[in-house]
């Protein structure tokens, strides 16, 4: 079968500002915490995860309970879908009305990313605000858009989503314990979750020294669970010195990022980590992040157990659904201002 035409063509829209362009050589991350989730000692795991969240903002998990065959089926389906011709993929294109499906013009920090994606929610259908306008109370129901090819993609994605949720809630409970909270402290926030999974495809890039697969950013949700292939490209800004470091892919592991919501809930005890993706001039790359997000009606603010006179509230409360919808609009098109960020709610 003939290869599909290249989905992306180089243009000025992809070129990063000079200060954001990737360096030719970035050091490989050394000492990234690796958490073995097969341990039955929850207290020990909580301590390890707490240290990783404080010192790094991300960590790697092994023996995580996600069956290898489930992940492999997901990766195979991703490759099969993105091999399709662009018109076939665009039959399930996302838009401003329904942000699920195929997409190839996403912007991060108002610069276009060198990638194409397929998004689906783990709760189908999912309810979100109709707009980011605080005065607009209208809600909308979004349903996943499934392609005809590969024919098993819907079932494969649903199976993978179920395993991601199990892992996500296990990690969420360990993070709660690490903060000295009841292990189920955060669980009720996700009763009508807006979590979603994104399949990223980064084609070979002829301007890999000027563009990024994803520009520098922090994840707005609670947790991100990332599966990446052997090509690699994830770079994280190291907390100790602010340098960009490459996160080497390891087989059958997941990279866990603390998101902005955990930063706010913890009242800055844990910090969301800035990261980006470098593209390859010769090889394509695939990655599959799961974004664990609460229900649209949840107000995000520091949890009361972590606030006292010595550690006063550091953030004003904000509505997750409005924040999430604002991000969707910002990803869809270039804006005159940066996306909404949690620092907009930081108290003076």
Give the overall form: globular
Q: Provide the low-confidence segments as ranges.
A: none
C-alpha end-to-end distance:
60 Å
C-alpha Rg (nearest Å): 19 Å
Number of strands: 18
Characterize the main sheet: 8 strands, mixed
Give the helix level as a range of percent. 10-25%
Supply the helix-strand structural class.
alpha+beta
- Biggest β-sheet: strands ordered side by side in the sheet: 1-2-14-11-16-9-6-3
Describe this structure in words.
This protein has 348 residues and is an alpha+beta fold. It has helices at 42-55, 68-82, 86-89, 153-178, 260-265, 320-332, and strands spanning 34-36, 58-62, 101-103, 107-108, 111-112, 116-121, 126-129, 139-142, 196-202, 214-217, 223-228, 234-237, 244-246, 254-258, 275-277, 285-292, 299-300, 318-319. The strands form five sheets. An eight-stranded mixed β-sheet has the order 1-2-14-11-16-9-6-3. It is globular and about 60 Å long.
List keywords for this structure.
18 strands, 4-stranded antiparallel β-sheet, 8-stranded mixed β-sheet, globular, alpha+beta, 6 helices, 348 residues
